[in-house]
Amino acid sequence: MNSPLHDHSAPVLTIDGPSGSGKGTISRLVAARLGWNYLDSGALYRAVGVAAGWADLDLADPAALVRCTFDTEIGFREDASGELRVLVNDVDATDELRTETAGAAASAIAAIPEVRAALKDRQRAFRRMPGLVADGRDMGTVIFPDASYKVFLTASAEERAERRYKQLKDKGVSVNLDGLLREILARDARDASRAVAPLRPAEDAVRIDTTGLGIEDVVERVLALLPAR
Ligand code: DC
After folding, report:
1. Are 46 and 188 in contact (CB under 8 A)?
2. Which of 21, 63, 73, 138 could cysteine-pair with 153, CB 3.0–4.6 Å?
3. CATH number of the domain enclosing 47
4. Is 56 left (phi over 0), alpha (psi -120 to 50) or beta?
5. pLDDT tens across 130-172, in order?
6. Ligand 1 binding pocket mutation candidate from 107, 109, 200 (most atoms within 8 A of CB)
7. Distance 225 CA to ligand 1 centre (A)
8. How many A from CA of 126 to the centre of ligand 1?
9. What is the DSSP code (8-state) at residue 117?
């Protein structure tokens, strides 16, 4: 299914990287600065994860999860304050999408090749004028290999653990920094070694190490890759 609005001539900037690299924040800011559309591809995997939870599906049953991917309607809309809301089968699931449970389900679902294939066209449908910033793990390698601009964001595992630690602490969740670091290292190894669309930079991606950099510094470095506007 191709959206009639899908426009192959619209320029694409892909921003891939591991979780904690600052991808989400940077991609949203860059899209806002350029006035381009924004694709949060992780939200699609999370949305299927949430729908699978609602239907009480077994995460070890790939056939059921593939069916669930085809059956789940996923919509994005901005609320009055400009925040992106995600609708799963017409229900606003934005907050539920961000939970660890949804993330864990998304990670299991994302390893199933048929699920990835089923979500391809839905991701490509975001390519519309005046341009698209696509945030994920395989945007530059699989979904938009012909993108004009490709970035791969990294940060040391220690810094990513610290960022996550601060986020959780601000939410009032008490966690252990060493435990977080171990989880991040384990997830990196899993993401990089999975058989389908493993996390790796596209050959033509510009790598930016965000360790020790502020958000605005990274936004500027990304914008500097595009022609002066
Ligand atoms: O970026 P995130 O934490 O919202 O992603 C949720 C899960 O989906 C994560 O386990 C990785 C997976 N994912 C993926 O495999 N490919 C993408 N393009 C985006 C996310």
Report:
1. no
2. 21
3. 3.40.50.300
4. left
5. 999 999 999 999 999 999 999 999 999 999 999 989 988 888 8
6. 107
7. 25
8. 17
9. H
